[in-house]
Amino acid sequence: MVLRIGQRVPEFSLPDYNKQQRGLAEFLQKGTTTLAFFPFAFSGVCDKEMCTFRDGLSRISGVGGQITGISVDSLFTLKVFAQTYGLQFPLLSDFNKKVTKLYGVLQDPWVGYGYRGVAKRSVFVVDMKGILRYKWITDVPSNEPPYEEVMAAVAKTPR
Q1: Percentage of the chain surpassing pLDDT 70?
Q2: Is 120 contained in some domain?
Q3: Torsion over CA of 61, 148, 27 and 139, rounded to 10 degrees?
Q4: Average pLDDT value for residue range 34-60
Q5: Closest to 43 measured CA to CA, from 1, 81, 86
Q6: Span 93-140, pLDDT tens digits
């Protein structure tokens, strides 16, 4: 599936690292939602990306936004990841790769390693009505998102 700007994004429900089911609708009730898909916890670039979002969280929340990280890691791995880096935003486990496929960001195989079914590094900014306002997707796992561009997209998204 290819999601387009202006299109309603698919609803989903995934467990967070506290074993609670969390749905997109829950996040959208609180404001503009940035979904940050990442390949693997503790893999260098992913660590840097999630820490950069952590460090920019006050800027995002200051304009009515929030961040949710999604990976194919287990919820147990995500819990240790969040604790290790002091991540104060939800991390969801898409261990069965349903949402990663639904959002069109399943990388199979993963470049150079032969792993099957990893999330492409990607960012989706969704308004409170569930409409996609911004997206960024890369096939190169070492590429980081354009953070300032993401922040600007969150800031200009209608509430």
Answers
A1: 96
A2: yes
A3: -160
A4: 94
A5: 81
A6: 999 999 999 999 998 766 666 677 889 999 999 999 999 999 999 988
Q: Is the whole-model pTM more than 0.90? A: yes
Distance CA 10, CA 1 (A): 10
Average pLDDT of the chain is 93
Please give the C-alpha separations between residue 85 and each of 18, 29, 78, 138, in angstroms, as whole numbers.
16, 27, 11, 24
Catalytic residue among 9, 24, 28, 46: 46
| End-to-end CA gap in the chain | 26
Any domain includes 3: no
Question: What pLDDT sits at residue 158?
Answer: 80
Q: Contact, 90 vs 16, CB < 8 A?
A: yes
The Cβ of residue 124 has, within 10 Å, a number of other Cβ atoms equal to 24
Query: Within a domain: residue 145?
Result: yes
Asked whether residue 138 is assigned to any structural domain, the reply reads yes
Instruction: Work out the burial of residue 117: count CB atoms within 10 Å of its CB; fewer than 13 is exposed, 13-18 middle, 19 or more buried.
Output: middle
Does the annotation count 51 as an active-site position?
A: no
